[in-house]
Amino acid sequence: MTDQLLTPKQVQAEYGFAPPTLANWRWMGQGPEYIKQTPGKGGRIKYRRSAIEAWLQAQTVQTGGAAA
Prior knowledge:
3 strands, 3 helices
């Protein structure tokens, strides 16, 4: 089974992160890892589903932990 590649619009539909938010995170070096399929400012961007899930897991804060 291959890891599904999602466009920013598909990420929005499934996870609720708007494409402009994803673009801002990429510019700031934050957010989930991504694949840039074509060079340049308008290059096509895809996200591996596993990268999004791993990023979400890393953002999860346990109740009562140090960050609480």
